[in-house]
Amino acid sequence: MDTNLVEFKLRRTGATLMLAAEPVSGGPQSFSMKGVQVQRFRFEHDILNALERTGIGYWSEFPADNIQATVTREQLHSLGFKGIY
């Protein structure tokens, strides 16, 4: 199974929350993540529910130091990330 070590970063732009998935430099990378677009969410709990639903993990609030996780292509796709990966 192809997996990548990814860092999920939360960015706030006005009333919109943007979740970015970026590969961790030096981490194991089984597939390219070129062109992965950020995902927009309205509420933080929507992001946390999506991460839990896809099996990435459970958090009661988004950590200030971001989230690092090993993910598959299917998990990224289930989170709604679009791009070439």
Quick recap:
With 85 residues, the chain is α+β, with helices and mostly antiparallel strands.
List the keywords.
alpha+beta, 4-stranded antiparallel beta sheet
Descriptive account of the structure:
The chain is built from two helices and four strands, in the order βββαβα. The relative contact order is 0.29. It starts with a strand and ends in a 7-residue tail after the last helix. The chain is of the alpha+beta class. The mean pLDDT is 91. A hairpin with a 2-residue loop joins strand 1 and strand 2. It has a four-stranded antiparallel beta sheet with strand order 3-2-1-4.
**Beta-strand percent range:** 25-35%
SS-derived structural category: alpha+beta
* Average of pLDDT: 91
Largest sheet: spatial strand order: 3-2-1-4
Largest sheet: 4 strands, antiparallel
Summarize the helices and strands and which ones pair or pack.
Layout: E1 3-13, E2 16-23, E3 39-41, H1 44-53, E4 67-72, H2 73-78
Antiparallel strand pairs: 1-2, 1-4, 2-3
